[in-house]
Design a protein that fits this description.
By secondary structure, the chain is mainly α. The chain has helices spanning about 5-15, 20-25, 30-50, 55-70.
């Protein structure tokens, strides 16, 4: 599991897939709600592979935090 769903850890984990990384970097230009709705699902699917099931709200919040992290760096 990632570092308690901290944005840097999530980005590191998702960046193992180059297509996902590119999509995230491109989509950080979206509004936060649009990004979170789209990539909350990306986060859910990624961690489900490892057996960690996030509910929609957890994944949405993690994606919103990731958006903020990427916009600040």
């Amino acid at each position: 599991m990632t570092d308690d769903l901290r944005p840097a850890g999530i980005f590191r984990d998702l960046s193992t897939n180059p297509e996902t990384k590119m999509a995230i970097l491109t989509d950080c230009e979206l509004a936060v709600d649009d990004f979170a709705a789209k990539h909350g699902q990306t986060i859910r699917e990624h961690y489900a592979i490892g057996g960690y099931n996030l509910d929609f709200e957890e994944a949405y919040q993690a994606a919103a935090c990731l958006w903020r992290y990427l916009r600040e760096t």
